[in-house]
Each structure stands twice: as structure tokens, then as C-alpha cells.
């Protein structure tokens, strides 16, 4: 397939969701270069606009070592079963062979490897760096789907040397600079539809779960997601029922303890999680405050 003048051979699917498919792709000119090709099948004009918004955001975003690197993009018409013609948007990025952080965490647990608190903080700090880069733009960019599955590894990782791996935040299909309070029922319903379609309930901030609270929805939703992500990295579970909006809205959670009833991590690390998971976004810290706190540990 041709992507903006670059000829690539499409390999196997490595991820999919909704109408998007991510393939390994091979550059036919630079034979040693392996890339990732995201194919977004768009049935409506709004879908095309959303895909183009993702591409434009990545194209214009200053490079950062912890954010997926854009290479090129294109559009083409394709025929679907039944003779339906759709637009396929193609997005070519760097390929990260280490896989996703969720899969790696699962593998380490299956092998009985335990990450130290310092290792967890090193990894978490890299995700925070990526989010901080987004939030430092003018206007700030909210990723809105920060989760373990959207963090990739550049390099292999084991419990003894986590510092050698570089983490990369990917999938900007939910990202936006939009930041506002939704006042009218029409606006609320439209935003609820976007949230349902492009974000993950288990990582959603309370202000995204109940828009009728009329709290401003902005980049602070990513800080909540970072709290969920770190909790998951530490305890291999979610702080709230991942299928229950009411559980998220309550903001009530607890920290699992070890066999003797002692806490498994330091009070300072648990405080990072607790501050990220403050229900009221007006008192939730910024990602820059979270980073400062992590760097002091």
C-alpha cells in the first residue's frame, strides 16, 4: 500500500478496536525499517474528521521520547461487504517491538517476577512525562484514554532492569484540546456519545462519568487515569469496579495489604495514587505536581 509516497507491505494485525486495526508494516525502500500502520475505517464524515484530527495532532506535536512518533498518513476509498464504499485513513508510526505494558505486566506476574517500588516509579514517571508533554502544549492536549494498553515498550523489560526500557504513549484517537463545562442537554448528550465511543470506563474520571455535575472536563481527566494506571501496576486490579459508573463516582477505594496486614508500598507512593484519584477535579493535582512528587520519592 502507498502511504503519502511511501510504499509499505502490510503485515499481521497486532491490535484492534472498534473500526481501527494496527498492523506491523514493512518499508519497501528501507527494508530494515519496521513500522506500525493504523487503518481507520470511516463510515461517516464525522469519523473521517476525527481520524484527521488525530493525525494533525500527532503531526504538529513536538517530538518527545515517550510519545509515539508520527511518520506519514493518507486516505483512500475502500469497498466493504455489500458494496458499501467507506474512507480508510492510514496512519504510519514507528513500531515498538517490546509490546504493550499491560501484556508485559501480565507476563512478569506469570513468571513470578515482582517489580520493586523504585522500578514502578521509574516506569510510571515515563508515562507522566508523556502526559506532561501533552499538557504543556498551548492549548493543553488531553489524551483522554491513558491506560496500560496504550503504553508501548521500546525494548525488552524484566524485573531486574526496568530502567533500560523506554515507554511510549500511543493511540491519540481520543485526544483533544477541547476543555469546557457542558451546560445544555444537547451538548451533554453529544459529549457523552464521544466519551462512550473513544474512552475506557475503567479509567474515566468522575466528571466524564456524570456530565450533569457540570464540572469542567479538561486535561485533568488524564491525572485521574494516571492514578488508576499506577494502582493497577501496583496491585494488578482496578481501584473501582471497572464496569460500575457509580463505583467511580463514589471515589471510595482501598489499598490491598500483604499477608501480615502491612502495606505493600510506601505511604508516599500510596499518596501519589490517592491525590490522582481525588473526585473533584478542582483539587486534583496537575500532572506537573504529580511528576514533582514522583521525582522526590
TrEMBL record:
Domain Protein kinase: 8-297
Keyword Nucleotide-binding included in the entry's annotation: yes
Keyword annotations of the record: ATP-binding, Kinase, Nucleotide-binding, Serine/threonine-protein kinase, Transferase
Reactions mediated catalytically: L-threonyl-[protein] + ATP = O-phospho-L-threonyl-[protein] + ADP + H(+); L-seryl-[protein] + ATP = O-phospho-L-seryl-[protein] + ADP + H(+)
EC number: 2.7.11.1
GO molecular function terms noted in the UniProt entry: ATP binding; protein serine/threonine kinase activity
Protein name: non-specific serine/threonine protein kinase
Lineage, top ranks: Eukaryota, Cryptophyceae, Pyrenomonadales, Geminigeraceae, Guillardia
Amino acid at each position: 500500500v502507498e502511504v503519502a509516497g511511501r510504499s509499505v507491505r502490510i503485515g499481521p494485525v497486532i491490535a484492534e478496536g472498534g473500526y481501527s486495526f494496527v498492523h506491523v508494516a514493512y518499508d519497501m525502500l528501507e527494508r530494515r525499517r519496521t513500522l506500525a500502520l493504523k487503518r481507520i475505517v470511516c463510515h461517516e464524515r464525522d469519523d473521517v474528521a476525527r481520524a484527521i484530527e488525530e493525525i494533525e495532532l500527532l503531526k504538529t506535536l513536538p517530538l518527545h521520547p515517550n510519545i509515539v512518533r508520527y511518520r506519514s498518513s493518507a486516505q483512500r476509498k475502500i469497498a466493504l461487504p455489500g458494496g458499501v464504499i467507506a474512507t480508510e485513513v492510514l496512519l504510519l508510526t514507528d513500531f515498538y517491538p517490546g509490546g504493550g505494558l499491560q501484556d508485559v505486566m501480565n507476563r512478569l506476574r506469570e513468571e513470578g517476577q515482582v517489580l520493586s517500588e523504585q522500578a514502578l516509579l521509574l516506569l510510571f514517571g515515563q508515562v507522566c512525562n508523556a502526559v506532561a508533554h501533552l499538557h504543556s502544549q498551548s492549548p493543553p492536549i488531553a489524551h483522554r484514554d491513558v491506560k496500560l494498553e496504550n503504553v508501548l515498550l521500546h525494548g525488552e523489560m524484566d524485573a531486574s532492569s526496568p530502567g533500560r526500557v523506554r515507554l511510549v504513549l500511543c493511540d491519540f484517537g481520543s485526544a483533544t484540546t477541547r476543555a469546557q463545562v457542558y451546560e445544555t442537554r444537547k451538548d451533554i448528550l453529544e459529549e457523552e456519545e464521544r466519551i462512550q465511543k473513544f474512552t475506557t470506563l475503567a479509567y474515566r474520571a468522575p466528571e466524564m462519568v456524570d456530565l450533569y455535575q457540570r464540572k469542567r472536563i479538561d486535561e485533568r481527566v488524564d491525572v485521574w487515569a494516571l492514578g488508576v494506571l499506577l494502582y493497577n501496576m501496583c496491585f494488578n486490579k482496578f481501584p473501582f469496579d471497572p464496569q460500575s459508573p457509580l463505583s467511580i463516582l463514589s471515589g471510595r477505594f482501598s489499598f490491598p495489604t500483604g499477608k501480615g496486614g502491612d502495606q505493600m508500598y510506601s505511604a508516599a507512593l500510596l499518596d501519589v495514587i490517592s491525590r490522582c484519584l481525588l473526585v473533584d477535579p478542582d483539587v486534583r493535582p496537575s500532572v506537573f505536581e504529580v511528576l514533582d512528587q514522583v521525582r522526590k520519592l
